[in-house]
Amino acid sequence: MALPDRFRRHCRWLRAATLLVFAGLALLLALGASTLPWMGSANASAGDRTLLMLVRLSPGLGYLWALWAVQRALGDLAAGRLFHAAVARAIRHIGVGVLVGALLSVFAITNLTRLIEGGHGGLAYFDLSGIVLGVVGAALVLLARVVDSARALQAELDEIL
Q1: Which residues contact 77 (CB under 8 A, 6 or more apart)?
Q2: CA atoms of 131 and 39, how far apart (whole Å)
Q3: Long-range contacts made by residues 25-29, C-beta under 8 angstroms, separation at least 24?
Q4: What predicted TM-score, i.e. pTM, was given to this entire model?
Q5: Which residues contact 120 (CB under 8 A, 6 or more apart)?
Q6: What is the tens place of the pLDDT at every residue in 101-149?
Q7: For the range 113-122, what are the long-range contacts, defined as Cβ-Cβ under 8 Å and sequence gap of 24 or more?
Q8: What is the distance between the alpha carbons of residues 101 and 61, in angstroms, rounded to a whole number?
Q9: Could you tell me the sign of the dihedral formed by the alpha carbons of 51, 55, 60, 62, in that order?
Q10: In Å, what is the CA distance from 108 to each residue of 27, 72, 114?
Q11: pLDDT tens-place string over residues 32-82
């Protein structure tokens, strides 16, 4: 089934916008990485500050991976591959990226920061947006299976006809 030209054009525009957002966020993440080691607790060693920087920036890497998968999926849609295997793969990668970023944000940052700084506190940071992102990421991973099944069914029907 061919996709309308208008839809494909919108996918190209959104892909370009997604790449712009990706580049901007990657730049912000890199700028944060260059300044965070010099900030923080005056008592912390340079090694501890570097570890804290890596811990605090880690969710951003998952989110950037998800954005990259979004632009790849939009490129596939713009090329007219609606049930192409790359679309299912991209949906799965988007879900994994969002899920990993959210899990790191909710659990790893809190616990690893507490461990590195030698502090006390809770085991999880109950950030509503992080929890919702985690659920959405997990749902996208499952929805990728639906796309895979639909693609397989379409291929089977195409063989029959």
Answers
A1: 3, 7, 8, 11, 87
A2: 28
A3: 25/60, 25/63, 25/64, 25/67, 26/64, 29/57, 29/60, 29/61, 29/64
A4: 0.79
A5: 114
A6: 999 988 888 888 888 877 776 666 677 888 899 999 999 999 999 988 8
A7: 113/52, 113/55, 113/56, 116/44, 116/48, 116/51, 116/52, 116/55, 117/41, 117/44, 117/48, 117/52
A8: 7
A9: positive
A10: 23, 28, 10
A11: 777 755 555 556 677 787 888 888 889 999 999 999 999 999 998 888 887
Q: What angle do CA 76, 77, 81 make, to 5 degrees?
A: 70
Instruction: Indicate the DSSP class of residue 1.
Output: -
Let me know: does 81 contact 147? Beta carbons within 8 Å.
no
Tokens of 133: 């992102």
Pair of tokens at residue 155: 């291929």
Tokens of 139: 């749902």
